[in-house]
Amino acid sequence: MKSVTVIGASLAGLYAARALRSQGFDGRLTIVGDEHHRPYDRPPLSKDFLTGTTGQDQLALADAEETAELDAEWLLGTRATGLDAGSRAVRLDTGRTLTTDGVVLATGAIPRRLPGPGSPPSGTHTLRTLEDARALRRDLTGGGPARVVVIGGGFIGAEVASSCAALGHHVTVVEAAPLPLVPQLGRDMAELCSRLHADHGVTLLTGTGVTQLHSAGVDDRVTAVELADGRLLPADAVVVGIGVRPATDWLADSGLPLDNGVRCDAGCATPIPSVVAVGDVANVNGTRAEHWTSATEQAATAARNLLAGRSVATHQGLPYFWSDQYGVRIQFAGRRLPGATPRILEGSPDDRSFLAGYERDGRTTAVLALNRPRPFMRLRRELARAAQPATT
Amino acid sequence: MIPVCHLDDLPVGESIRIDTAPPIAVFNADGELYAIDDTCTHQDASLADGWVEGCLVECPLHAASFDLRTGAPTCLPARRAVRTHPVTVENGMVYVHHAAEEGTAA
Q1: CATH 3.40.50.2000 fits A327-387, yes or no
Q2: Which residues 46-105 on chain B approach chain A with CB closer than 8 angstroms?
């Protein structure tokens, strides 16, 4: 393999590029990114970057020396608009077509928007990119306390709500489901985590959707959020955190199977072995993870298989994610099986500090911790070890 | 020189965080004591909560790993070293000698 194009100057894209180099690929490496920035870390965008304790310079995922070592051609501010997977030809919005021996798809995901025609009123935000975070931060730091409505009570929504509360704003979180985070944590643990909002003076409204945003003025500024039950929540700023969809629009005529992401085998390879996918855009063996750690782990597997020309390695990492909200670090690892019962192993939910194991048939398959990083890590490692296939 | 705890309170495999500015983590790795800056250079996480194996500590958040002897990162995502601080034991008490405080380079 003499040349590889990585589409996506993201965490997954950068780690794939690094993995290719560290696994001996010394050919031509091109990294295409639609943002103007070199790869940066997204998790702080909803947390310390929003509150102002982390600056942009602390987000970079590679320093100048590492970037130089990568010896890649960077095409930033450049969008890939199409791919012919069979010939591995990538069309760019600059009119150029890149044809290389291998292609890594790492275009990530795009925030879902509220349904409805037209563009949302000003003061309405989604949060995915550095520019999104900057725009939101401008709205949150412009004046005194504002009324912020966060639509969606998932992890991004909860973290943004926490950051807004820390900045002194009046925050309401609106969640369409009866309880947020149930798909991730199960009902009992989701209930415990959702209490963090009230602990910090944030109102959580559940079981109601949003029908429309009201706006006024020449700048079409958002003024209120109208709920399905008729309530009207006055709002100076609105953050929409209702999930993401994989960024596969540009692959519609690529010939690749698209099904909640780019469908890959357990080795991150598409049916065309010289095209692999990593990170949020990849549906690996039926699962599309949106986690930081899986993006980095998949990159090493994908690079290996791309260079081998077939899937010689599979990605078997234990799912892991974390969320920081209201000064509480929530960590989760493993697979929560249907019908599994969470059991508090140490600590106390009342103290917002505990370790819980999800058990089924006497076996623990997942672990959740609030502010218990050390025992969490021990259990996470045990689960990872138990999940390893037996070797002889 | 900062008193940390009694040696008996820091058994093998254990670690303790002291609230200096910035905080310092003290480890007992197989009987050897080490002190390093507690905050991972990648993102806000306490290395005192990390996983110690041999002379390495793994960050509890992202699995960045540091060499307790040198403070150097041994794998991504961390890229910058943490400072190390000398540790002594006197009359059964563990003391950390804050590197910056005493003007020594880390």
Answers
A1: no
A2: 46, 49-51, 58, 60-63, 76-77, 79
* ipTM of model: 0.81
Name which of B51, B61, B62 is nearest A381 (Cβ-Cβ).
B51
CA separation for the pair A199, A374 (Å, rounded): 24
Burial B32-61 (b: 16+ CB within 10 A, else e): ebbbbbbbbbbbebbbbbbbbeebbbbbbb
CATH of domain A126-240: 3.50.50.60
Instruction: Decide which of 3.40.50.1100, 3.40.720.10, 3.50.50.60, 2.40.50.90 is the CATH code for A3-110+244-308.
Output: 3.50.50.60
- Predicted local distance difference test score (pLDDT) of residue A316: 83
CATH of the domain at B90: 2.102.10.10
Which distant-in-sequence residues (6+ apart) come within 8 Å of A236 by Cβ?
A123, A139, A146, A147, A148, A222
- B-chain residues near A322 (CB < 8 A): 61
- B53-73: pLDDT as tens digits: 899 999 988 888 999 999 999
Write out the residue limits of the CATH 3.50.50.60 domain(s) in chain A: 3-110+244-308, 126-240
Give the pLDDT of residue A345: 97
The backbone region for A12, taken as left when phi is positive above 0, alpha when psi lies in -120 to 50, beta otherwise, is: alpha
Which residue numbers in chain A have pLDDT < 50?
391-392
Nearest CB to B60 within list A48, A63, A373: A373
